[in-house]
Amino acid sequence: MFILKKQDVEITSITYPKRDHKIPILSYQGQTFRLINVFKGEEAEEARAFWRDLTDNHGKACVLLEEPDRYSVWGKIRLDQLARENSKDDEAVAVACIQGCLLLVQAVFFDVEDLLGNRQAKSFEKDFSKVLQGKNFPNVDSSDAIKALLKDDPLTKLQLPSWREVHLYTLLQEVHRLGKEYFGNSNFAEGIDEILEPMATLERTQFMDWLNQFPEGKQWAVK
After folding, report:
1. Are strands 31-40 and 70-77 parallel, antiparallel or unpaired?
2. What is the tally of helices (H) and strands (E) in the chain?
3. What are the Cα distances from residue 32, in Å, to 93, 129, 161, 193, 220?
């Protein structure tokens, strides 16, 4: 939608209704946007690709903010709709999509632990934590919460986080990147049918249909 500079916009924050954290809000020409993703200064290409994917492939109204030391992507919202817990602009996703994504994440973590050892597993946990906190994921404000995402069964035991679709895009993209760094290839993304086998058939089909709609998901659906 727009590529903007810091001097073009005003950035404030509001407290999310019914949740104890603040949301950065970007204002531009009477329109408001919420923060979706942040990239380092050297990740200009990745930032633009992420922005174009959301705008061109998913029809999202987004702003790419260029700053000297970072890039950030913001999605258009209406503040009155944000105040409603079930707002369409909150982009809530089905429980099956969150569960499926966490099963994929846990499969990578357990493979790191089994194949590369406990030391590398702890390193992966730290890198995973940096991703969640650096990308402003909600419900990850403690090390215990992050450990639970990696180890607790998302189908039965884990209290699922209140993530939106853009969080899942970022999660799949970043964990796929980590997996390639740790294993040196993308073979860890194979065998997805086995990874998702614990899910009920209906939920598994729902998740796979969703997963195959966008590039971050398709790179996991390796046959």
Report:
1. antiparallel
2. 9, 6
3. 22, 29, 25, 40, 33
Neighbours of 198 (CB within 10 A): 13
Q: DSSP of 31-90, one letter per residue?
A: EEEEEEEEEETT-HHHHHHHHHIIIIIS---EEEEE-SSEEEEEEEE-HHHHTSTT-GGG
One-letter amino acid of 75? G
State both tokens at 116: 């590369």
CATH assignment, 2-90: 3.30.200
Which residue numbers in the chain have pLDDT < 50?
Answer: 18-20, 85-91, 223
Its pTM stands at 0.63
Can you give the residue ranges of every domain in the chain? 2-90, 95-218
Q: Hey, what amino acid is at 39? A: F
